[in-house]
Amino acid sequence: MLRNIISNQTVTKVKILKGKIFFGLLIILIIATMAYPVSSAPPPKSGVFNSAASVQDPNSQMYMDQLGYNFTSPPTKAGDKFLVNVYSYNISKLYVYQVVLVYNRSVLNCTNAWPNNGWDDPNWVFYDRELGMTAWQHEEGQPSAGYNAEMVGDMLDTFENISLVDTEVLMARFEFEILVDPPSYGELMTVLDLANPFFGGTAYAYAEIPIIQTSSDLTNSNYVNKWEALPTIEVEPESYTATHVGETFDINVTINDADASLRIIAVQFRLSYDNAPLEVVEVVEGPFMRQFNTTPAEPYTYFMNFTESDGEYGPHVLVGILLLPNATGNWTVFPEGTGTLATITFNATAAAAPVDLKLVDTILSNDVLEGISHLVQDSSFELIETLSHRIVWEDLEPFYVRTVSNGRVSYNHTISSGINLIQPQKVLTLNVTGIENITSFCNITIPRELLDSSPNNWIILVGGETADYIVTQNDTHSSLWFNITHSQSTLEVEVFGETVIPEFPIAIIPTLFIVLTLLGVALKKTVWSRKRECLVAKPQSNK
Question: Residue 123 has what DSSP assignment?
């Protein structure tokens, strides 16, 4: 919306998307900019800093490998290190040399330098030669050639010399640590100055010094660290995991690292989401923009939002915030720091694998209606539901099978279960619903007394297809973790074991044996008692 208003206070085009536009926001901006002269404002200090470096002029007899050692913060920070290589070109009759590099020690600290008791870099001018001495010994934090300078050098052991005509050779290397960060939206710079270099031939073999340095023979460089912390529109938290269907939760859209020098007066964003597992309940303005009010009384801002769906962005929430100008059409206070732009309340309507909460069509505008460079940070949502399924078998105490899934496991709250045991087939069955063409996971934990198998002999069918699984077991339970790719929204899952609880559980057999034994004893007593009664009642014969 804001990008269609140009700075000469005329409106050339307004693009209407799906009939929904922040008309009030545009009208206020147009009136404000047409009714009052636009105050001159510095351009926003944003964009990408060019850190590319170029190779030095080989006609210079000594130079560093970059014209500028350029960094941006962030990501560069205090404590980071970088290397400076010093080269020479077109050397003749070299026997001894020294390199001195001057720098600002309040900005940089030299933590190492080479050559230092020799050097194993094959590009070094004296590599693999007999050396006479090392002219420099580095101690961290103690510059070797004064408060702001480091010196290195070396000489050959024998009265030989080196001539490298039309050739570039490595003379020295310095390692620097960055001591301080640049100020916000500012920069730190220090010159890296080659000073008092010395090249010499052997006085014994040659009565000459082949290279005589002048200022024109040296090419200096510099170190620049520029603050580039662009403001960021961010969705927080970075990810959100719901635990059950019907859970409502808040997502904040925030701005981070806003600086008053950017002169931000308007914000727009669209937060796209998947409306299969999510529905928008409410959208409210956050406190950030309102606290920088220019008007003496409310409303301090103009806040608008729409929840809509279109072919370009899909389901999304469209939000715009304008910081209202004062009576003269100007702004005297500008946002800075970090805070919440808007809070969006969602309802989790279905279990879901991770889906994006993505920022699109984001705009930051200053008081002369220029766009401000910025970053965005998205978020994600998923619903991982834990259910305990009650399974009753015969007259035993109930068994409980637990499922953890970001798919929707069917569940009957009346019987507290969504899992069926088919005892003759040694199988548990359940239904899992998810978003088509999205992969969810399920972890099912089964009492081993109910259904059991050796670790490698479980069989899991998802929609009739064999699924790979990961199993963990202890003495009482087995846990099976597997993926579900939803070729259709609802799929049946079957978990087959090797052993299943019997129709007459083993636990009741001893009791049954005791009962049968007691019944046998009682029956035997009854039979003997009746036989005895018959013997007693029989009449005696006469002799």
Answer: T
> Cβ contacts of residue 425 below 8 Å, gap of 6+?
496
Closest CA to 45 of 191, 221, 183, 222: 183
**What does 381-395 look like in DSSP terms, one character per residue?**
EEE-EEEEEEE--TT
Q: What is the pLDDT of residue 206?
A: 37
- CATH architecture of the domain 62-227 equals Sandwich (2.60)
Specify the pairing of strand 477-485 against strand 470-473: antiparallel
Structure token pair of residue 16: 């209407």
Type of residue at 277: P
Q: Domains of the chain: which residue ranges?
A: 2-42+231-383, 62-227, 385-500, 506-534
Strand, coil or helix: 145: coil
**DSSP codes of every residue in 222-272:** EEEEEE----EEEEESS-EEE-STT-EEEEEEEEEEE-GGG-EEEEEEEEE
d(CA 248, CA 281): 8
CATH architecture classification, 385-500: Sandwich (2.60)
Chunk the chain into consecutive blocks of 10 residues (it has 543) and report each block's average pLDDT, rounded to whole numbers: 31 33 38 34 26 36 85 88 88 79 89 86 89 60 66 77 77 92 85 78 42 52 85 95 92 94 95 93 97 93 95 95 94 95 94 88 94 93 92 90 91 85 95 85 96 96 95 96 89 96 64 61 57 53 48
DSSP 264-288: EEEEEEEEE--TTTEEEEEEEE-ST
What backbone phi and psi angles, to 5 degrees, belong to 209?
Answer: -110, 110
User: How far is 452 from 164, CA to CA, in rounded Å?
Assistant: 80
438 neighbors 277 (Cβ within 8 angstroms): no
Q: Does domain 2-42+231-383 have CATH number 3.90.180.10?
A: no
Cα 120 to Cα 269: distance, rounded to the nearest angstrom: 56
